[in-house]
């Protein structure tokens, strides 16, 4: 966590100082920016959960489509959602930004972009009670944001992907597909618009784009499931139901049946988007059939969508039941920007 | 720490599987790759040290100059050196690679580059008794490697930058300037050569380039200083003596005097390179004048190079004493690739 002042121009150093003023110590952060490492303190008997995610312009977001607040929010949400899926409480976040010179040097809107990126990130950080304990900035030919989340979870108590057993019920929090639906709407608008540096989005679309631009990681729901030992396996829906359920099946060595009519669709979402869309950041989990799961956890609806069955070689890992019959559900990701 | 298979081609998935086979669990790593987060276990009473460093082609290394083994080694060394400077023991490392398509897609030497990158990184990881607990790979227009190191240090016992007091002696481990000298040699060779995709370096230069291409982080020395409560402040020499000593002075609110003739010069290094070169990854520390510091710690020489004095407004933070007189030493970094 080091500046490299030798390689920085004065404008960049000034920006870095501004960024670092927005990071903080306190709570589990014993020491933030300003030394060789940050120092964090967990509670006795806790394990440390670590997740890192690299977000690159054109792959995970688009500078020309996503407002800077959304890039900041989504970067942090992606990391927090990994903690939520383990039932971990966040201790601290660290973000490394790489930005093209036009966004780093002043007088070209760069300071404004970075400030708005941090507005989006810190708003979610405050809401999630996590400190941004480190931030760094480099010039880079492509815009990118690498996020690191450190969390803590009572020893031996983390929600894993590997605990699902035949007979377990399968649940999701919230509704699915709305992120992909919002992205598809933006992509259609981009194809119909003249190419510009910044896609102009009609303000009336804000509610429909909200799930894509500002997804809510399910930290309280993950913590509830862990504290009540209610789930046998859990994962967050970052890649899409078909892929993420396949991860649980693979790690637990089981298969699954999903009832298509039971899947809660987000606003404007199709079944295909709910199955393969990704980036909803809801939780997918399994629970013993005799364990009562509330209809809502911390105000977010929870819906039963299927069950875990024994895996048999030659049979599909996931079967989708529709009113018209059943078919294998192949893990298939969303090609976000292609 | 998630794959995003939806956005990956089969060749990339295959590479990712190869990478993940080279990561491991064990020791403090309770759970490595394969879930939403890695899980680590510290000892009772320890704090968690976290450092992240983003390394970008053209800024922190050059694909055309540095062999892949060196890029892997240097990426990990940069993070380990931050832990060394706190006296922390490493728990686990995580690396996110972003690489241009030519290095990710097969048949173009990509698999070979990535494999050699990991050879370099894992060789240092083994030597340093740290597990690489997570690895990720994305396509990126520019080559980059983000490294995260997690360490542990007994509560309240970390070596900080802020504890230096007037009267303390100033020491460095090893010798300085050899990394900058090696880099200058490579840069001169590049200017004299025809531009190629890969700089051809005469094999006989290997020993002289070793400090630049394969620097050794001083984990054992940092741990010794912490365990013996021998240092009042410490930092690693990543940016160069003039900048890094200025960080100690700033954080400790003191000034410093350095004896130029006492500075141990690395092979082929000039005084300027030792003062401003950076990337030596030696430790710079202060100690009470009555605390005995051995001449070697774990076989590495330790040299006294100056003393901490009271800071007075208007006076230079650092004064350099030469046989011909004294002068203020301005913090000045090395412009690595410009």
Question: What can you tell me about this protein's structure?
Answer:
Two copies of one chain form a homodimer. In chain A, strands 7, 8, 9, 10, 11, 12, 13 and 14 form an eight-stranded mixed sheet that branches. In chain A, a hairpin with a 2-residue loop joins β13 (318-322) and β14. Chain A is built from nine helices and 14 strands. With 338 residues, chain A is an alpha+beta fold. Chain A folds into two domains: 9-154, 60s Ribosomal Protein L30, Chain: A (2-Layer Sandwich), CATH 3.30.1330; 169-198 and 215-328, Alpha-Beta Complex (Phosphoribosyl-aminoimidazole Synthetase, Chain A, domain 2), CATH 3.90.650. In chain A, α2 (68-86) runs parallel beside α4 (110-127), α2 (68-86) runs parallel beside α7 (219-227) and α5 crosses α6. The first copy, chain A, has helices at residues 10-21, 68-86, 101-104, 110-127, 178-192, 206-213, 219-227, 241-252, 271-276, and strands at residues 29-31, 38-40, 46-56, 89-99, 131-139, 144-154, 169-173, 233-236, 254-259, 283-287, 296-297, 300-310, 318-322, 325-328. Chain A is globular. The interface between A and B is large, with 77 and 78 residues. β3 of chain A pairs antiparallel with β2 (38-40) of chain B.
